[in-house]
Each structure stands twice: as structure tokens, then as C-alpha cells.
Hints:
By secondary structure, this protein is mainly alpha-helical. It has one domain (about 30-220). The protein is about 75% helix and about 0% strand. The chain has 10 helices and no strands. Helix 3 (about 35-65) packs antiparallel against helix 4 and helix 5 (about 105-130) runs antiparallel to helix 6 (about 135-140). About 20% of the residues are buried.
Amino acid sequence: MKQRLKTNGVLIFIALVVLLLMPQIFFRAHITNWSDDFIEIMGFISILLGFLWRLSARGYKAERSKQGASLIKTGPYSIQRNPMYFGIALIGFGVVLILFNFWALVLFFVFFIGRYIMLIFQEEKKLILQFKDEYKAYMESTPRFLPGMNTIIRKEIRDVLPLKISWLRKEIGSFSMTIIGIIIVEWWTDVRLEGFDKFVPELAAFLFALAGFFLFVGYLRLERVK
């Protein structure tokens, strides 16, 4: 785990340096139209959903895996085998939609596949050795990454994405910094180029999406976590 975090930290640092050295290449030119604003709002929603997906999977596994001694097949893990990585993918996808040129989506998915798919295969080999036929059966019944829509529709959302406030507290720092950072970047871009009036409706849309996120968090209440 520590080695993975160190590797991710190094890769993120390198990416930030490249972005700062060549911002004109990667960052999207500001365009004033409804479609650009819509894409940015969808990116913001993707980030919110990604954080929620990740913290639900992480908290659920931490409470039930018994330090890795038990195979988790319920909650977020009932619809996909790697919900934490799926949450990370949603966050990254949202950031690209908001800040970067659309061709950067190709770079993001190449990076994500190159980095995380390798980790997933490595983890699967260890889990097969540890849980043997139980994990093989789990692999056959549950998709590796993308959850099936029919499966999601049939299940109660509070069973698929259980949530506790204690889990949210552990992620509140990174969550707050990401949301504040995106709003500041959008504020700087809109106000600098077009004035504060342009930023007001976009800020209102962001805050509306954020309010919807917290209402959804409230819906995923403690009573459904068993």
C-alpha cells in the first residue's frame, strides 16, 4: 500500500510539473456557451459521485474485511470488484471535463489503464491464491470494473452505496480541497476573462449540484448499513 501511494505521488507530481510548464497545450480555452457550461457541470457531478463511490467502498471494506482476511462481496462490491478504482476514474474524468482539452481524455484513460489495470491484475492474482475457488466464483458473477445497469436498477441504492458519517470525515480534507480548488480555478477564469456576472450562474449551478450531493449523502443513511 505504501509503495503504491509513493508511486502515485510521484506520478501526480510529474503530471503537475508538465501541466505548469505547458498550460496552453493541456488546459481548455475558455468558451462562453451553454454546451461548455453543461460539460463543466457534468464534470463536477462526476467528481462528486466519484468521491462518494470511493469513500463508500473504502469505508465498507475497512469495516468488514478483517484486515484482508475476509472476501467482501456485498455493498459496493456486489456490483463490481473494484469500486474504489471506479470512484477514482470518475473523479479524474470529471477533472478533465472541467479543466482540460477534450483530447486529454485519451491521455487520462491511457494513464489510468496503464496504472490501475496493472494493479487490478496483480491484486486478483493474490486474491485467487488467498481465497481460491471463492474468489474465482466471485469473478464469474461480478464484473471487474463497470457495473451493469440492470444490476444497479434491481438493487436498493443504499445497499449498493452504504455510507457512514465517520467514513466521510476521513475523506473530508481531500474532498474539500478538490471542490474549493475547482471553484477557484473557474472563478479566476470567468472573472478574469468576462467579469463576475459570467461566474454567478456557473457558481449557482455548482452549489446546486453540491447541495444535491449532500442530500443524496443524507439519503444513504446509517440505518441501511448492517
